[in-house]
């Protein structure tokens, strides 16, 4: 028997938050439960079988901490809530939803969106060296940068060092205009973008001049010892084994390092082993080192990105 359930939302803001942009969240709720979900003003109408209605109601209530305060809800939030219901992890879900890592300069909350992201954050907080491996859009670099900036602003470290290999994805550095720094900057743009979310862009040049923040290609790390620093190595799949060993052995006293990469997007020549893949094999069981793996379920960009990652995974399996 098909029947309806009506949930009265407290405000227009809560209705907008629950519905999402172009009512994408309502579509996701319907996909996850099999129910028909319609919003009319501040009333949410759920129709379907009793099982479908009950699941929809539980899922909406699991997200109440967000929509009751008018906070944005993403498709990933809904999927994580569904996973929590299926695995009886409602208490963990509440902790996940309430653990705000930081606020951007615009006042937006930054928090883990999935349980694996939260495990990654906890690993970074408790290990001097953490590897995070996963596809594009899973927040590997962004979350590391959030933790690094927060630690820097709290005076836990004297320097924040962001580095990555300058390996070209189909283009050669020599053909780009400008001096070396100008040639390298495009490769470091994702790291700058993360900084701009938390530090006034006008202040960043001064911090870089004083060496408080350093953004540089991995080649600049050779021969140095990085003491009292928070180091992020991004795009680590494009390091050679020698480069990876070099950067890992730069870690100094009172320092922390996070290494991020996506082994499915290596731009190295086909005959060259990835330093990230080799490091995972060698260091997997070394005490004090954490390895975190994110998947397509942790993608927090446009919903289409998750489907793209999934399609490529299926193609490569075949």
Describe this structure in words.
The structure is a single chain. The protein has 318 residues and is an alpha/beta fold. The chain has helices at residues 12-19, 24-33, 50-62, 64-67, 75-86, 90-98, 115-126, 140-153, 180-196, 204-209, 241-248, 275-283, 303-317; strands at residues 3-8, 36-40, 43-48, 100-103, 109-111, 129-133, 159-164, 213-217, 229-233, 256-261, 289-293. Helix content is 43%, strand content 18%. The strands form three sheets. The chain has a six-stranded parallel sheet, with helices on both faces. A hairpin with a 2-residue loop joins strand 2 (36-40) and strand 3. Helix 7 packs across helix 8 and helix 8 (140-153) crosses helix 9. The radius of gyration is 22 Å and the shape is globular. The model is unreliable at 169-173 (pLDDT under 50).
Please supply descriptive tags for the structure shown above:
318 residues, 18% strand, alpha/beta, 6-stranded parallel sheet, single chain, 43% helix, 11 strands
**Number of H/I helices:** 13
Query: What fraction strand?
Result: 15-25%
Helix content: 40-55%
Q: Biggest sheet, open or closed, and with what strands and sense?
A: 6 strands, parallel
- The shape is globular
Intertermini distance? 42 Å
In short:
Helices cover about 45% and strands about 20% of the residues. The protein has 13 helices and eleven strands.
Blueprint (SSEs and pairs):
Layout: E1 3-8, H1 12-19, H2 24-33, E2 36-40, E3 43-48, H3 50-62, H4 64-67, H5 75-86, H6 90-98, E4 100-103, E5 109-111, H7 115-126, E6 129-133, H8 140-153, E7 159-164, H9 180-196, H10 204-209, E8 213-217, E9 229-233, H11 241-248, E10 256-261, H12 275-283, E11 289-293, H13 303-317
Parallel strand pairs: 6-10, 6-11, 7-8, 7-9, 9-10
Antiparallel strand pairs: 1-3, 2-3, 4-5
Helix pairs in contact: 2-3, 2-5, 7-8, 8-9, 11-12
